[in-house]
Amino acid sequence: MLNVPPPAFPAPRSQQRAAGSSRSKVPLKPGRSLMDWIRLTKSGKDLAGLKGRLIEVTEDELAKHNKKEDCWICIRGLVYNVTPYMEYHPGGEDELMQAAGTDGTDLFDQVHRWVNYESMLKECLVGRMALKPVAVPKEISSISEEKKQLNGMLPEKKLLGVSAKDLTPSYDWFQTDGLITVVIYTKQKDMNAELVIVDCQDKRLRGEIIVNEHSYVLEVDLDHEVEDFFINIAEKIGKVEIILKKKDNVHWKMLGQPLESHNTFIKRKNRGLFYRKCKLVSKTEVTHDTKLFCFMLPKSTCFQVPAGQHVYLKQIIAGDCISISNPEGNFKKSQVQALEDLFFLAAGTGFTPMVKLLNFALTEVSSLRTAKLIFFNKTEDDILWRNQLEQLALKDERFEVQFVLSEAAKDWMGKQGRISSSLLSGFVKRSRKDSKVLICICGPTPFTEQGVQYLKDLGYSQEEMHAFTA
Ligand code: HEM
Description:
The structure is a single chain. The protein is of the alpha+beta class and about 475 residues long. It is built from 10 helices and 25 strands. It has helices spanning about 35-40, 60-65, 95, 105-110, 115-120, 145, 350-365, 385-395, 420-425, 445-455; strands at about 55, 65, 70-75, 80, 125-130, 170-175, 180-185, 195-200, 205-210, 215-220, 225-235, 240-245, 255-260, 265, 275-285, 290-295, 300, 315, 320-325, 340-345, 370-375, 400-405, 415, 435-440, 465. Strands 8, 9, 10, 13, 14 and 17 form a 6-stranded antiparallel β-sheet that branches. Mean pLDDT is about 85; it is low at about 1-20 and about 135-165. Bound molecules: protoporphyrin IX containing FE (HEM). Protoporphyrin IX containing FE binds next to helix 3, helix 4 and helix 5. Protoporphyrin IX containing FE binds near residues 2, 24, 25 and 99. Keywords: FAD, Flavoprotein, Heme, Iron, Metal-binding, NAD, Oxidoreductase. Its EC number is 1.6.2.2. Its cofactor is FAD. It catalyses: 2 Fe(III)-[cytochrome b5] + NADH = 2 Fe(II)-[cytochrome b5] + NAD(+) + H(+).
């Protein structure tokens, strides 16, 4: 139902609200809680208002439904009648109305990409947006076309547009007695394991390949069961093989039935989040109000979380496991290539995305001369990983950490205060004139915004900063 970021796990920064907005939850009328909504969706009432029919909605039709009493919103190509949900929306009616009669995908993602609207609004589904007759960019294929069986031939490519045609990955497959090999030609040099995400469970295969801002998905209900799978990547030529071990050594007549997203190549941000269930393997106390949760991906999933990226967690209410999404985030490793000076400005759990990045920079970036962390917290007890950070500073002379407290006890010998221009000017200094520098910032939105502003005032360029936000 609702995707709840678990309480003690640091929330990804992308969950922070956009600058300057007055967004917050509103008090809901009695009888309008999430549980009440769930009850209503299960009551059998016709919430979509179409007596069970699904229709194709044109843009003109969508635009007509722009009033509170008759409000349709399109998210990722599907149109929902949100009028019944209006009073249940925790962000309030006015927020929801911003997207009335339009494609609300970007707005929705900006505020709460992790909310599982598909499940919450299932009963409000009106239908699918009609494809524009002249639209060459074809981001989501029509189901009817996709319901053809895959017969081993290369299916028609889903094009982004004529110019993008040649960049669209394609796939093929072949078999031996014991194996099925699905080959994806990504047409992308420097393919690597961080760009390949595969889930294969209960005859359902989903492979996603990240190609810059886009992603290519293969999604098939396989012809037969498989026992296991492996991934083989020919990095230089950009070929990815998903090798499935057949459960029974029978001859497959076809790879399987294509599912909704099969063979599509679209912008990553336009894909819904894909989750798989994960087991909690340990829970460790880090500070008085922070715990470290370790989850294990199921055997049927293979992916890595690249440095600087994050995942979303979803917990089904009253459920007993956590689901974890694909990795997301706009940080690119190329930002630290040939880097000389790396600075981290972190507030509280904002340090989270920096852990992996710091490790990556110290071990993989040979040009690195300095890595400095300035870590803002309220009190000493709030400092995450203090011991480990101090140890690291002793062990690696390139690394330095400074703790700054806003509510320091009397005996605190370190720095006090909040983020300020003078503090930053003393801390963020190039190791040599014109050195290649990157300053990463993560914390609550006002902290991040102020930090960026101070750095701009100090003369750092946009390319020299990375704020971990949406
Ligand atoms: C597209 C226009 C929408 C806007 C501008 C919007 C805005 C907001 C805002 C401002 C909040 C309060 C967030 C906070 O500060 O915690 C919120 C919460 C929420 N909205 Fe929306 N919303 C939109 C659409 C939707 C839709 C279609 C759903 C469908 C299920 C939805 C479900 C929720 C839920 C479940 C929350 C509570 C989230 C949480 O507790 O983390 N919203 N929304």
